[in-house]
Structures are given as structure tokens and as C-alpha cells.
Structure to design on (92 residues):
């Protein structure tokens, strides 16, 4: 998680979290790499978000759990092969 997002997360108040609806909570959780099931109630979403906010407020690194997507600048072996083949075909 970027430092800017961690600062924003740390700045959330208890009242903001309690006012947040399901979509709002899911967006924050998604930024932390958590994708709750669709049927998860807003109370549970808020309960998951609060410890993340507290960790960011203490200056701890916010854990990114369950993130399945690789970072955009890291290519898979297959993607590297494809890119290399395209570049090599244009070089003369």
C-alpha cells in the first residue's frame, strides 16, 4: 500500500467508518488486498476495516493479504517471452 493511501486510511475516524456503507468499506478493504464475499454484511466489513486503520495509525505496514494480482511491472515468464519476441521482431 502506498504511503499516501496509508495516511488516508490512518486518518479515518471511528465515525467515518461507522457511517460508511458497504461499497465504501469494500473499496478500502480492496485497497488492502482483501476481497470479502459478496454476502458479507456491512457490520463485518467495518469490523475488518478498523484494525487496518489502527495499524496504519500506529505507523505499521498495512498487510496486503490475499492479493492475487502481481504488481503491474512484474511480468510472468510467458509475458516476458511475448514482449521479448515482439521487440526482437522489430529490431533490424
Amino acid at each position: 500500500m502506498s504511503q499516501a493511501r496509508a495516511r488516508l486510511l490512518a486518518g479515518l475516524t471511528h465515525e467515518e467508518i461507522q457511517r460508511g456503507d458497504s461499497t465504501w468499506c469494500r473499496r478500502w478493504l480492496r485497497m488492502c488486498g482483501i476481497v470479502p464475499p459478496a454476502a458479507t454484511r456491512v457490520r463485518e466489513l467495518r469490523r475488518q476495516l478498523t484494525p487496518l486503520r489502527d495499524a496504519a495509525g500506529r505507523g505499521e505496514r498495512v498487510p496486503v493479504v490475499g492479493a492475487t494480482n502481481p504488481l503491474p511491472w512484474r511480468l510472468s515468464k510467458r509475458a516476458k517471452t511475448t514482449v521479448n519476441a515482439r521487440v526482437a521482431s522489430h529490431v533490424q
Summary: The chain has a mean pLDDT of 82.
